[in-house]
Design brief:
- The chain is mainly beta and 163 residues long.
- Strands 3-2-6-7-8-5-4 form a seven-stranded antiparallel sheet. A three-stranded antiparallel sheet has the order 1-9-10, with no helix packed on it.
- The radius of gyration is 16 Å and the shape is globular.
- A hairpin with a 2-residue loop joins strand 9 and strand 10.
- The protein has a domain of 100 residues: Roll (Pnp Oxidase, Chain A), CATH 2.30.110.10.
- The structure holds flavin mononucleotide.
């Protein structure tokens, strides 16, 4: 049985959860493409798994199935890239030459993944990928909160020992 809740209000509630922003890139049938998502989450370290949730209605949805992909984590100054891969016009982002899986230049972090499993997520599909390579740099992150982009300052002190 499916419960019916007011979708707009539910979205506002969910929007109170602050996230980062990533662009998922992959080699589609017509060449490199990407989609902006904030539904990225880490899942497991052994094996190293991450997850993104992609709307069934997105053009990327069917193209992504079964393909290696790269999670590109955006820095605070990269909001135009987030907008571009969410369908807005703008200067095209710069692709990294020669990468096995297409990814974007100048990211805060990137994780190259091979497809692991897909799961039904209602009007979305949960794509899990196994991380095969990654890299990162320091810097402020692009955030998303209450339907607005924001900047997440680089912490002065890491708390990796708490999690
Ligand atoms: C900040 C932000 C977060 C988004 N998060 C998601 C997401 O988690 N999953 C999703 O399917 N679409 C998400 N979108 C919407 C897609 O980026 C957008 O629908 C895109 O145009 C789909 O491109 P495509 O149809 O070419 O695949 C998000 C957009 C923005 C701006």
């Amino acid at each position: 049985m499916t419960t019916t809740l007011a979708p707009r209000s539910l979205r506002s509630c969910l929007g109170r959860f602050a996230t980062g922003v990533v662009v998922v890139t992959f080699d589609g049938p017509d060449g490199p493409r990407g989609i902006t998502v904030n539904s990225f989450t880490s899942v497991s370290t052994e094996p190293p798994l991450v997850l993104v949730s992609v709307a069934r209605r997105a053009r990327s949805h069917d193209a992504l199935a079964g393909r290696p992909f790269c999670v590109n984590v955006l820095g605070a100054e990269q909001e135009p890239i987030a907008r571009q891969f969410a369908g807005a016009a703008g200067d095209p982002a710069v692709w990294v030459e020669g990468a096995a899986i297409p990814h974007l230049a100048g990211m805060l972090a990137h994780l190259e993944c091979r497809p692991w499993r897909n799961y039904d997520g209602g009007d979305h599909t949960l794509f899990l990928g196994e991380v095969v390579d990654f890299d990162y740099r320091d810097g402020a992150a692009l955030g998303f909160h209450t339907s607005a982009f924001t900047s997440i300052a680089e912490s002065q002190l890491g708390i990796e020992d708490l999690i």
